[in-house]
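Lesson 9: reading folded outputs for more than one chain in a single document. The general rule is that every protein is listed as its sequence immediately followed by its structure tokens, and records are never interleaved. Here is the first one.
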Amino acid sequence: MVRDPVNGCFSAEIMLRNIGVDLKWSFMEDLVPSDPRFAETAEDTAFWKMLSKIGPDDPLPPQMMKQFYERCSTVLRCGRYAERVKPFLDLFPKENIMFVDFKEFVTNTESVVKQVVEFIGADPGLYKYKELPAGMAGERKGRRMHPAVRCKLVEYFREYNLRLYAMLGRDFGWTESDIEEGVDADNNNNGKAVASSRENDLVAVVRKSSRVAALSQPVIRKTSSVRRVVSITASASQEPPKIRAMEEDM
């Protein structure tokens, strides 16, 4: 599942704060000169280089949890999907991997889960769907990303997003990021989630032929508003008027 990395980064910060991680950075604060949030340090680079050389039977480095859960650079790195996806596309045919759009999943949960079940070769008719409580880890509690930081992140991820679109032949519409209605708005815990269930609430399994992991007990909020995906040609040729107006207001 892939999500607009701008919204995904802020969601990650909120989740980490809500589970008690003591972050030394925040996307809620204004930009500063040579902002350290948008650059990897030499220490970061050394860590990822070291991690890439670890074998399947080697112990994980003791600093791994700190690097993963406390560093802003790690949150940004996770949002550079083109880099994360390429190793899989180098090994497996693209048609053997299903890429789920987070917005589409939030808007049409049951329909998307059925598509996943069909993709892995199972019969969606054997599964039941039920409502689950809204997730708590992403509760906003009135917190908002700083507008200047949002604009900075849009520019930061632009090249990576376009590279992903070219790799997959699919435009997710993130080139000009927008606030996700009902997802990035203040949460009121009135939302409900829909998940697939078959006796033990199992959602999906792994497709053995492609070794692609499917969804497992998704918990999300519904939203009735979603911007439609445009073609990569259209998105590259002009900015949507709505985004232009928003940037002018900022």
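And here is the second record, again sequence then tokens.
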Amino acid sequence: MNQHDLTHYIIDYYTHLYTSDAVALDTAEAQEQCWHSVPIKVTRDINLNLTRNLTLTEIHDAIRALPKGKAPRHDGVPMEFFHECAQEVALDLLKAFTAMLNAGETLAYINKGLIKLIPKSSNHARLNNWRPITLLSKIYKILAKTLTGRVQVALPHIVRPN
């Protein structure tokens, strides 16, 4: 088996593994029925909080919350850089994140991830003994952590504790 065949085999295996075979009703009537049965939980105040402009404090909190000591991803920048240089980079991150959120899209570089296969057991001959993980850039992680902080405030109003 050459590299090209192996690549296609791996892609086909994981595509099939992570594709749902379930058939979902995708009619306007079914969607309307679903949404009318769900009570509105996000109040106007919660929505205003979720959609307000990002702040420097949120960027700093996200940087502090992300752990040090992890291997740098495909961007080659370790989290320690952001911890040590938070004062210098936070304003630039805030400007970039605000521009991306206002545009409704992120830069391709930030969304880029590197998929690696990690062995789950000592039997490396079977593909189902490998676990795919996606290595993401630190800037993506900071943006995601910043937005996650916002969503966490709204979650108790949206998701039942049980």
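What the second record shows: The helical segments are 3-17, 28-36, 44-51, 56-65, 79-84, 86-103, 108-111, 138-158.
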